[in-house]
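Feature request, filed as a ticket because there's no other form

It would be nice if the structure record came with a short human-readable summary line next to the tokens. Right now we just get the raw output. Example of a typical job, pasted below so the devs can see what we mean:
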Amino acid sequence: MESARNCPVFGGAFSAILPPGAIDVSDLQPVPDNQEVFCHPMTDQSVIVELLELQAHVRGKVAAWYHFEDVGRVQGARAVHVLSVQPLGLENLSLRGCCQDAWLLSGKQQVAKENQQVADN
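Raw output as currently delivered:
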């Protein structure tokens, strides 16, 4: 059985641990420069890492919610559900000299793929 793998993203500036079988979508089609997109061929699930512009009017945990909901709105998500929002220890970040705080949001968005409609669940 294939194990999770550490994968460089954004030209090696960061890395992500990806599930077994994850495919880099940029090998199949163009992906915007501010995104890294991986999909799984058997589960039809995607992992998207997106760099976002600072929004000075939201801070801390609220900023994570704001960006997640904004991405869902822009993508036309039918459903946006936040599972958890947790602080990240700055000592573990490569950008620790630049950040006042960092957050990890896990959630789900129900978004139709190109030329498809979102199924009712």
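Something like this underneath would help us a lot:
The first helix runs from residue 60 to 75.
Helices lie at 60-75.
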